[in-house]
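From: lab user (bench 3)
To: helpdesk
Subject: output format question, protein + oxidized coenzyme A

Hello, I'm new to running complex predictions and I'm not sure whether the block I got back is the full result or only part of it. Here's what I submitted:
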Amino acid sequence: MGKALEGVRVLDFTHVQSGPTCTQLLAWFGADVIKVERAGAGDVTREQLRDIPDADSLYFTMLNHNKRSITVDAKHPEGRQVLETLIRQCDVLVENFAPGALERMGLGWERVQVLNPRMIYASVKGFGPGPYQDCKVYENVAQCVGGAASTTGFEDGPPVVSGAQIGDSGTGLHLALGIVTALYQRTVTGRGQYVLAAMQDAVLNLCRVKLRDQQRLDRTGVLREYPQHPKGTFGPAVPRAGNASGGGQPGWILRCKDWEWDYNAYIYFIVQAPVWSKICNLIGREEWIGDPDYATPGARLPRLAEIFAEIERWTMTKTKIEAMQILNKYEIPCGPVLSMREIVDDESLRKTGTIVEIDHPARGSYLSVGNPIKLSDSPTVVTRSPLLGEHTDEVMAEFGFSAERIAALRAIGAI
Ligand code: CAO
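Helpdesk reply: Thanks, we reran it on our side. This is the complete output you should expect:
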């Protein structure tokens, strides 16, 4: 069975997390992803947060599966010639350098269009065009400037960044969609195009519901499902909502049995309107079912703190897994707070290929997150990340370089 992106050749100038997330997805869907790195150095994450001396870090290996690695010095005139040869024959170029870096290599969008008008040229940048377009940006910076940090955390605490890498991996996902969309349009137009995913934009896109709430706040002065209601006051901006649900169904994180010593003994509990009577029966507050102060979603909004405290009296008598099993029987939406340890041990995630065990020549076996997107006709087989320059000779031969030429380029330090 073929793969969805088989035949698509990607020249991958990405590094760190955002860009590699994108090209790893393309590789998982079957594209031939050729990662270009500097000899002797490579992607800086190869050596960041190392847990095994001299072996590529988990940071690198977990973001660069299914790719090939070649070393080319893009600033060497002969190295640049090599890259121009590759660019003429590839479909997609992906990069997430600081603004201007590719232009300084002589490989900006203007030049690449001339070399290959069919090229999809895709970039991650911190910001889109505007006052901050030249800034370097990392994950947490993106979370701060994209509206995530100001709306995350508790009302009496400082802004908080999320453990979910919405700035890096989130932007990589956006870019991957932009690339396959551009590839699709190319089948009609025959032309490549420039694809930009700015980290600020991607985070804001993921914070769409908070922009919704800003406008509701501007209009009405109150957000009734937020914990600030009814006792607190609202300022001019959407406040931090603690663990309140972002949707129309109120939710909160509640303590479960053993919370005193297990700091992940919690469950997310959603007071979904259609199951209100089931919730009341379960927690022994049957009288709330018909009580006009509690019977409707609108009536419950100013009483959410009291309601969740009462539900918590029940959840604290169960482990989070017991609580989930019981709640599922009544179709009450909930989710135990799973630690990474518990996720690692989850057999069902292994079975679906969402967690995979990979063998690496320098590291031995390690776990990674496999492709979270499952295509029935294009299954993903995760293979290990490449060693630095592992495929230089192989790739260059495929692109028409003779063994003598490869040796000569190596001798002058161009590859
Ligand atoms: N041959 C020759 N030079 C190479 C090369 C190669 N194969 N590969 C990289 N380089 C050079 C680049 O040309 C650049 O050099 P100059 O700036 O001197 O021209 C340099 O290596 C690296 O560029 P950089 O500025 O991108 O790297 P940095 O570590 O200083 O910054 C980062 C990192 C992430 C802040 C920056 O790349 C950035 O803002 N990227 C866009 C946003 C982004 O993706 N951020 C998320 C990263 S994931 O957390």
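A quick orientation on your result: The longest helix spans residues 169-189. Let us know if anything else is unclear.
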